[in-house]
Amino acid sequence: MDSIWVGERVRVRGVEPEESLLLMEFDQDSTFMRNNDRLHPPRSKAGYRRYVESGDGTPDDDSFGAGIESLAEGRLVGWFGTNGIDKNSGVFSYGIAIGTDFQRRGYADEAIVLLLRYMFGERRFQKCDVEIYAYNTASLKLHEKLGFVEEGRRRRSQYFAGDYHDVVLMGITIEEYAAAHSLGTVQSS
């Protein structure tokens, strides 16, 4: 079986309600949370479960979240979610997070390539924009390696840990993606 959602290292899939405790564990790491979003107030196990159960999306919904599973370990190592959907302009955004214990193994870059292949090759989007905290050099380097181009910077636009932080704006077009990665193929049966 051939799946657009399976790479060499990861499988993109739905997050099961019983895995909500892993998301809760990821959220306990303040550095991890500040690199991926921001700190959130504590939430109950039931609150995490409700969050997971509400985030599946539908097959016709371009705004969705998914889990990232390590094929080698057979477990959830992170997740991503699309956002900023602008069907009129054909532009979307996403956020991605890989648990601290699973970083620097190629999971994020492979999951991003799979997501972009789907959004560009199946859903007709023509551009993806991302926002990355300026101090998150690992994410900036990863996105540059994947073909994203720095388009600007919003200075002092986020406040946490007692200071203001810049946000770097990066983007990739379908043409830039296709020059470096496959949009997929259709197999005859």
TrEMBL record:
Transferase among keywords: yes
Ranges for region Disordered: 34-63
Keyword GTP-binding: no
Pfam families associated with the record: Acetyltransf_3
Keywords: Transferase
Domain N-acetyltransferase positions: 10-175
GO molecular function: acyltransferase activity, transferring groups other than amino-acyl groups
Domain of life: Bacteria
Protein name: RimJ/RimL family protein N-acetyltransferase
Organism: Actinopolymorpha rutila
